[in-house]
Specification:
This protein is of the alpha+beta class. It is built from 6 helices and 18 strands. It binds calcium ion (2 copies).
């Protein structure tokens, strides 16, 4: 009980005091909790995913799918879990026997015998010959489960692996600051649908790029030139990338931040401002910098952005 109280204090402390930070401040992201005993940050995800998607989600957040290194870590994380998400009963962890049936290993290649390995009674049982992914329950027991089954999951980021991007004021995820508009951008070169791209930016705590004027359009056109030169292979719509506006709510076109789309026709391809009459519901931009609309299922490259302090950005821009 005493430990639990301490833990609650620790969590409250983390949430309130570490609004901005880096490794010194022991801050990673507001949705992660830091545990001093293990020197790492954890997030108990409350959306169910397949094991593969859980692993990808953690990576997108700049973390990795958690597994307990030892009993002490298992106990510490389960305490946290009981405190903040007691309704989550099972969570995928970074252990599987996908590579070789019966040989359970961690996502970074350690045998399960080298890490925490308290199995539930009778497990692992490879039920129906179809259980290769491991999840953990609140009692601290492991079970092998279907990889394509959906489960909650836990991500982990060690303090020692945290690199802070001071310019963009976020964990290092490959973003570049464009000072003139006070935004940080990242060109993603794995083609995805607009909706998938939207999710990826969210996982990075950013959003699909919202192009608001010619300065920004020119910068992004320049940024995508490198992608055009590299000729990224794959089955996707080349020559454009997804941008942060849509009409998916059928409430007329808006940006992903809920503001009106740019009304300057010269920013749009063929001077065409999208309207309710258009069948396509998602935003894009040609490599040339002209805005356009596409079918949301179209796969394409995309750019995520993080807007720095709004007022600071405006001040710098108009001085
Ligand atoms: Ca198996
Ligand atoms: Ca099982």
């Amino acid at each position: 009980m005493f430990t639990k109280t301490l833990l609650v204090h620790l969590i409250v402390y983390c949430l309130s005091d570490f609004a901005y930070g880096n490794r010194e401040d022991k801050f990673f992201r507001t949705d992660y909790n830091y545990l001093e005993t293990t020197q790492a940050f954890y997030k108990i995800h409350t959306s169910k995913q397949t094991w593969g998607d859980a692993k990808r989600f953690c990576a997108l957040e700049g973390a990795s799918l958690f597994y307990p290194d030892d009993r002490a870590e298992a106990n510490a994380v389960i305490s946290l879990w009981q405190t903040i998400q007691p309704n989550v009963r099972w969570a995928f962890v970074g252990i599987s026997d996908i590579v070789t049936e019966g040989v359970f290993e961690t996502i970074d290649g350690k045998l399960v015998s080298e890490v925490y390995n308290q199995w539930q009674r009778g497990e692992p049982n490879d039920l129906n010959g179809d259980e290769d992914c491991v999840h953990l329950n609140l009692a601290g027991d492991l079970n092998d489960y279907r990889c394509d089954g959906k489960s909650y999951f836990i991500c982990k980021k060690t303090l020692s692996s945290l690199v802070w991007d001071d310019l963009c004021n976020m964990p290092e995820l490959g973003y570049t600051l464009f000072e003139a508009v006070g935004k940080c951008y990242k060109l993603h070169t794995t083609p995805l649908s607009w909706t998938e791209a939207h999710t990826v930016c969210h996982a990075e705590q950013t959003h699909l790029a919202v192009v608001s004027d010619q300065v920004e359009a020119d910068y992004l056109a320049n940024l995508t030139e490198s992608a055009a030169r590299r000729r990224i292979e794959g089955n996707y719509l080349k020559g454009m990338f997804h941008a942060g506006f849509h009409n998916r709510l059928h409430e007329n076109w808006q940006t992903v931040r809920g503001s009106p789309i740019p009304s300057d026709a010269s920013l749009w391809w063929d001077m065409h401002l999208p309207s309710e009459a258009d069948h396509e519901q998602c935003g894009s931009m040609f490599y040339t910098g002209r805005l356009n609309i596409v079918n949301c299922d179209t796969k394409s490259l995309f750019i995520c952005e993080r807007q720095m302090d709004d007022s600071l950005g405006e001040e710098e821009r108009y001085q």
